Amino acid sequence: MSSIFSKIIAGEIPSDIVYRDDRVTAFKDINPQTPVHILIVPNKEIPSVNDVTPEDEQTLGHLFVVAKQIAEEHGIAEKGYRLIVNCGDDGGQEVYHLHMHLLGGRRVGPMVVKRD
């Protein structure tokens, strides 16, 4: 089954793509949580971190290289930004195609909010 991100990568669903190469695609989140909120996605459909194999290692490292480049291009590298990868339902994963959130452009606050 093809994820919504695979359909974006294939050009079947329009998206504001900010970066694309043979391993990853990056596009603006449709519900941004910060002024800069970009999703960086491997072109290979990997459902979650739990499905990563040793063959994926170079692509996953490439996600960080691309994140740095995008942060620089969007003027947020110097002040800082946050990278998030969610895994599974309890980890907050909503789309089961591994992806990295790049968030910045303002102070992003605490990593986790304690709930009573």
Architecture in CATH? 2-Layer Sandwich
**CATH third-tier fold name:** HIT family, subunit A
Counted beta strands: 5
* Unreliable stretches: none
Question: Cα distance, first to last residue?
Answer: 38 Å
Order of helices and strands: HEEEHEE
Basic shape: globular
Give keywords.
single chain; 116 residues; alpha+beta; HIT family, subunit A; 5-stranded antiparallel β-sheet; 22% strand
What features would you describe in this structure?
The chain is an alpha+beta fold and 116 residues long. The chain has one domain: HIT family, subunit A, CATH 3.30.428.10. The chain has two helices and five strands. It has helices at 4-9, 57-73, and strands at 17-20, 24-28, 36-42, 81-84, 100-104. A five-stranded antiparallel sheet has the order 1-2-3-5-4, with helices on one face. The longest helix has 17 residues, at 57-73. The chain is globular and about 35 Å long. It starts with a helix and ends in a 12-residue tail after the last strand. The mean pLDDT is 95.
Q: Topology of this structure?
A:
Elements: H1 4-9, E1 17-20, E2 24-28, E3 36-42, H2 57-73, E4 81-84, E5 100-104
In brief, what are we looking at here?
Helix content is 20%, strand content 22%.
